[in-house]
Amino acid sequence: MPKSKSREIIDRAALLAFIKSRGGAVHKRDIAKAFNLKGTDKIHLKAQLRDLAEEGLIAGRKTTKRPDMMPRIFQARVSEITEDGMVLAIPDVVGFDHAAVEITGPRADHLSNHQLVKVRILPGQDDQTGPKKVGLLHKISEDVESQIGVIVRADGKIWAEPVSRKGRGQSLHLVNPDMDKLRNGDLVELEILGRHRGQSAARIIEHLGTRLDSPRAVSMVAIHEHQIPHIFAQELLTEAEHLGATSCMREDLTYLPFATIDPEDARDHDDALYACPAPDDEGASHLYVAIADVAAFVATGSLIDHEARRRGNSVYFPDRVVPMLPERLSTDLCSLKQGVERLAFVCRMRIGADGTASHPKFMRARINVRDKFSYEDAQALIHQDTMPDHFACLLGTYRRMDEARKKRGPLELEVPEHKIRLDDDGRVAEINLRERFEAHKLVEECMIQANVAAGAILTKHLQPALYRVHEEPPKDRLLNLKTSFDAMGLPLTLGNRITPNLFNRAVARMADQPQARTISEMVLRCQTQAYYGMDNLGHFGLSLDVYAHFTSPIRRYADLMVHRALIRCLKLGPDGMTDKDMEALEQVGTHISKTERTAMAAERDSIARYVAAHMSDRIGMQFEATISGIARMGLFVQLVDNGAEGFIPIAKIGQDYYVYDEQTMVLRGEQAGLTFRLGEDVTVRLEEAAPVSGGLRFSLILPKEPPLRRGARRGHGSSANRGRRPVRPPKRGPKRGDK
Q: How far apart are CA 439 and CA 384, in angstroms?
């Protein structure tokens, strides 16, 4: 955590605005009174005023005024890095024009967009206006630690409690509260300042304009907690409104009856499909995968391109989408809407009678989507006796590809996702496990084959690009998984060569058992995290030698980079990958792999909070669950009906004393002998639901528990348990932070 600085006791912008509003000189005691500062806070104020004076933002210490000229040293935020490397920043100074300043200096080329810096204005430029000012990089500011907190008011006092799990249960003293504006339950963004009068202190950075119990609070908390950019700058929106497509040769495919298949509530449509019989090969077909041609609208180095790269991907919450591209692009110009001519990047493949794809051809084209299906609509069409010829051909093409996929042997894990339905007020109406249709698999397999074709072409032409890499599981995870499987009586033979079929066989053995979902999730957790890299290392999970993301450029920056790489190596237009893009590929791959993980964490946290909010009115109810994890401190369980996950503390299991055997992964009662294993079915009672953190706590509804032996020495079981650390229930209730 960055060391707190006394000059940050009052928000800099607020302090300068107050000084300016007084129209001349203002005494330090007037500032202290206006911001309700007492005791040692006045000392911090004095230091803050001294710092502002040294930076040229004010004149004097006890009496202060804002000088008319640009301060010698000022704070700024990087706004743009041009294609030729020029770094521009917007001054973060109250009372001055916000024209961009060019930053120079030996460390300027290490800066990135939106980074906070301090700039020293060069001599002779103090009185200049407009974008011609040039400044020397004085300091790269450290990022402050921030959290989202909820305001608590009681007994005339006011403080904040962090929302995140790591800060849960803390009480933060606020150094700059606005007593009149803050209400109990308001959400605020906080800067953590360290200790203040023996208590953790924080400063309010932003009032988020919502309450913890409001419908949009869950996604708002996730956005701020994970620092996801969600507001587009006005100049970027202006650029989007005036976009036009680059000119290049395009195939006219508007006569083909393309169809989109998406979720029912989808707002952007970045892929469309069409299949027809191959005229020269009976039993084969031509599959067309049309993808939104984002590269035609988003130029390398533009404001939109920089922002898309910074975001890395869109983030999806139950109540909103934080898009990678402005809506002018994502839901309009680039969206493959029904009945509207759109620009597309099309991959055409021959799918043989055996389901294998060959002869890929990429073309830039114009298309006109004829049919718009939801997954439910497409599934209903599949079940009909008759269907349009082009859809029947698409379905037949998929089913042949599916047979080839089974022979290829990718990971076959059925890990259901939560489906959260909100009512008209934005509150949770229903939570179920998302049903997976054949229509989902149809779209997925078509996208996979297009991605394979893209990777193969890039490899063939030795074109630098970003591949989607998924390496095989590391040895330590495999050994841990084997230990877990052995404890469940499920064999897992680890040979010299690890393939996805090794896991598929284990999952298939348990397909009809209650533990099937737990087994699939254990295998999933064993896998490595996929990432974007320049080296083609293949995709273990899909059992593919080459793979590159091509099919979602509206929502993934990696796909846009692959489009540009294909355009360059196939000479399909003037908007291909530049030399500068190729130099930055490794850095971009690392960055967007990180933003993808951030998005996944934010989406996962928001779902957990929605589930906890939905369950909060079911306290005391019983549920059927499966043991999904075991630890010394208790059991992790997953509810059967809606997949909600929670924890049973050791104190809520029973009256016995329990020891955890790490070798067999069994929790065993010392006296009564009850045992708990992974994958077992249990009945639980909901004891607590915490929407703030997304946590659920249960107690166990035991079967008939054998009577405990009276007078038995606690903590000392049989010889079989000797040497294993006993786990005892706490003597007191849960700590405040666990509520």
A: 13
Mean pLDDT on 714-725: 39
Q: Is the pLDDT of residue 140 over 70?
A: no
CB contact at 8 A, 584 and 532: no
Say which CATH architecture domain 619-738 belongs to: Beta Barrel (2.40)
Angle at 454 between CA 453 and CA 457, to 5 degrees: 85
Domain edges within the chain: 6-64, 73-140, 146-212, 234-459+544-604, 475-526, 619-738
Residue 527 DSSP label: S
| CB of 451 closer than 8 Å to CB of 551 | yes
| CATH fold for domain 6-64 | Arc Repressor Mutant, subunit A (1.10.10)
Q: Which two tokens stand for residue 22?
A: 């007084």
Tens of pLDDT, residues 625-678: 989 888 888 999 989 888 889 999 988 887 888 888 877 788 888 887 888 988
User: E-strand spans in 534-662?
Assistant: 622-631, 634-639, 645-649, 658-661
Identical fold for domains 73-140 and 146-212, yes or no, is yes
pTM assigned to the model: 0.75
Question: Is domain 146-212 given the CATH code 2.40.50 in the classification?
Answer: yes
Q: Which residues contact 11 (CB under 8 A, 6 or more apart)?
A: 176, 203, 205
From 3.40.50.1820, 2.60.120.330, 2.40.50.140, 2.30.140.10, which CATH number describes the 73-140 domain? 2.40.50.140
pLDDT tens-place string over residues 247-284: 999 999 999 999 999 998 888 899 999 999 998 888 99
Say if CB 335 and CB 617 are below 8 A apart.
Answer: no
Helix and strand element counts for the chain (H, E): 16, 34
pLDDT at 678: 84
